[in-house]
Design a protein that fits this description.
- By secondary structure, the chain is α+β, with helices and mostly antiparallel strands.
- Among the domains are: about 140 residues, Rossmann fold, CATH 3.40.50; about 130 residues, Hect, E3 ligase catalytic domain fold (Alpha-Beta Complex), CATH 3.90.1750.20; about 100 residues, no CATH class.
- It contains 15 helices and 23 strands.
- A five-stranded mixed beta sheet has the order 4-3-5-6-7, with helices on both faces. A four-stranded antiparallel beta sheet has the order 20-21-22-23, covered by helices on one side.
Length: about 625
């Protein structure tokens, strides 16, 4: 074992930047007062005198300077010029020890205290807090930081809690809090209100109009960039996420939702989206709208449908829809998504086509029957199917949609939601008055808690009822909106001569490519167009349907096959109540059995929509 000599540390010397100084310390003092009152001025002069006398009593101390800020708040160290000068001198090696009266004099914000203590310790500069009797060089460093960190967290949490409570009270009163700018509106800081900026509002209207027409967020962003429109921040480059955020923004229909995000803790200031962990505050008709309720609701419905389609366990991609059939085509054999490829790329014969992604990436062993299909064939099939449904509309589908609309109870549900909202508002006002009485000490805390508990219980019951009614209302409004859209598409005599993407986006949910016939034989070119025609009824409607043993489905389908270079399309309804067959070659042959067995009853409306195969 080797002999190791231990060299003991020398307590009488301290290492500085470029020299050793024995038994002598360069000392600075810091003092501050927060106001310019006569009393505080006297305090300031007393502090200066105190430190001069203190240094004179210590032979081993050399006074470097006394740094003093007058009539300056301690919360913002960046505004204290003398404080900043002292820190710079310390970092430059001109100071060994800083003396100050207390932590609050050094920095009222203890987070700043912790920051500067760490900075100066790295430079071998000590700080002595007289009131707390803390010397950062003689006290255990880690223990000191724990204490200061604890103080910082306690103070920050206390301040943060008070601020949050104040903001919540403002939100409950309907006041706008933390406005960050919104394209289409100008903010008045004096009145804390927003008003329409007509020039910007035109951009907002353009975005919503294009989205409802069927354009995706990615496409709209490209259009806005090409047109040279500017964002609220002045950028001429638009992004898909910006457009999507605007479509979600309730301010454009005149409402105000606050509490969308919350701070996790006051130390890190990390913010998260409020997914229900904290309260939110919604105020209707808060300001002048740019977009009508109908258009805003239609946009949200399209957004929900697109999101639900693509936010699956295996596919969390953002929805962009660069091409008409992007993220819309599904393989009828393996369920995978079809992707767009260019056949004969780089030649005069290149053609866009759609192929099963699983088959391409994992091979035929995963999806042996799928085949690529040209984009023009998909477009041609859609045009053919649309024109056939157009001819059918006046004879059969219109009557079916009328029966569905009669079953909806939208107006009654709206009245219920409105009445419940009024009741909730009254209880919230009652709760606010009760809180004011408690703050003014007009009632005792036990009385307040007892009455507050009763009000909160009623509020929760009414809120649950409203949420339930609102969900049902949204479903039925969605049905009504889709039916209106369906009518708009087919309730006219216009024939589609060429492929129209807007109509595809508005009415087709997905396209299933490939499938098997009744005998199980693969049909790689069979196409199924699934329409957006879903309908949701009340609970007791579903119970009656369940009693009938009827399965409710939501699809309008079309099969497409290529025979001898000529497309053949077959249509038929496939519900529990009836059948409808139409063949493209023999359009005159129409076999219809009544789809409604018992007209006028709930049981007669078991079909959620029309199905064409």
């Amino acid at each position: 074992m080797s002999n190791v000599k231990v060299i003991e540390p020398s307590k009488s010397s301290r290492r500085q930047r470029s020299r050793f100084i024995e038994n002598q310390m360069r000392v600075a003092a810091y003092c501050r007062v927060s106001t310019d009152s006569e009393e505080q001025k006297t305090s300031y002069e007393s502090q200066v005198l105190h430190y001069r006398q203190l240094v004179e009593t210590k032979p081993e101390w050399d006074l470097v300077d006394i740094y003093a800020d007058e009539a300056i708040s301690g919360t913002q160290t960046s505004k204290r010029m003398e404080f900043q000068r002292m820190i710079n001198d310390a970092v430059d090696g001109k100071i060994d020890l800083i003396i100050t009266k207390s932590i609050s004099r050094f920095a009222r914000n203890t987070l700043d205290t912790l920051k500067y203590v760490r900075l100066l310790k790295e430079k071998n500069v000590a700080i002595m807090f007289e009131k707390e009797n803390i010397n950062t060089m003689t006290m255990n460093g880690e223990m000191l930081l724990v204490i200061l960190s604890s103080l910082a967290q306690q103070e920050s949490e206390s301040i943060s809690a008070n601020v949050i409570m104040g903001l919540k009270m403002k939100m409950k009163r309907g006041e706008m809090v933390g406005y960050n700018g919104c394209l289409g509106y100008d903010y008045d800081p004096e009145t804390k209100s927003i008003s329409i900026n007509e020039e910007e509002a035109e951009i907002v209207r353009y975005i919503f109009n294009r989205y409802v027409e069927g354009a995706g967020c990615f496409v709209i962003a490209k259009e806005l960039t090409k047109l040279g429109y500017k964002t609220k921040k002045g950028s001429i480059r638009w992004h898909e996420s910006t457009v999507r955020a605007m479509i979600k923004n309730e301010k454009y229909k005149g409402d105000l939702l606050q509490g969308k995000t919350f701070t996790v803790d006051p130390i890190t200031h990390r913010r998260l989206d409020n997914m229900g962990e904290r309260e939110k505050f919604y105020k209707e008709n808060n300001h002048e709208p740019i977009i009508s309720d109908e258009m805003f609701d239609r946009a949200q419905e399209i957004l929900r449908m697109r999101s639900s389609r693509y936010n699956t366990k295996h596919d969390s991609r953002k929805f962009s829809r660069m091409h008409a059939f992007s993220s819309m085509c599904v393989c009828g054999f393996c369920g995978g998504t079809l992707i767009r490829r260019i056949w004969h790329h780089g030649t005069n014969h290149e053609k866009p086509a759609w192929q099963c992604a699983k088959c391409i990436k994992e091979g035929r062993k995963v999806c042996e029957h799928s085949k690529g299909i040209k984009e023009e064939m998909l477009e041609e099939a859609f045009v053919t199917m649309y024109n056939k449904v157009q001819k059918l509309f006046d004879t059969d589908i219109d009557e079916f949609l009328n029966n569905i609309e009669e079953a909806l109870d939208v107006n009654s549900l709206r009245d219920e939601v409105k009445d419940l909202t009024i009741q909730i508002k009254k209880l919230e006002e009652k709760s606010q008055k009760l809180l004011d009485m408690r703050l003014e000490e007009k009632i005792t805390e036990p009385d307040y808690n007892k009455k507050h508990h009763v009000i909160e219980k009623e509020l929760n019951e009414f809120r649950d009822q409203r949420e339930d009614r609102y969900e049902t209302l949204q479903g039925e409004e969605s049905i009504s909106t889709r039916i209106k859209g369906f009518r708009n598409a087919f309730n006219h005599e216009l024939k589609m001569d060429q492929f129209d993407r807007d109509i595809l986006d508005n009415f087709i949910d997905k396209v299933i490519v490939g499938g098997k016939d009744e005998d199980g034989n693969p049909m790689p070119y069979a196409l199924t167009f699934v329409f957006k025609a879903g309908i949701k009824f009340s609970d007791d409607f579903y119970e009656k349907v369940a009693e009938l043993g009827t399965k409710m489905e939501t699809e309008i389908l079309s099969s497409y096959a290529k025979y001898d270079g000529k497309p053949a399309v077959t249509f038929a309804s496939n519900t529990a109540c009836g059948n409808l067959h139409i063949f493209i070659e023999e359009i005159s042959e129409l076999i219809i059995s009544s789809p409604l067995q018992n007209e006028g009853t709930v049981e007669s409306l078991i079909m959620e929509n029309y199905r064409i195969i």
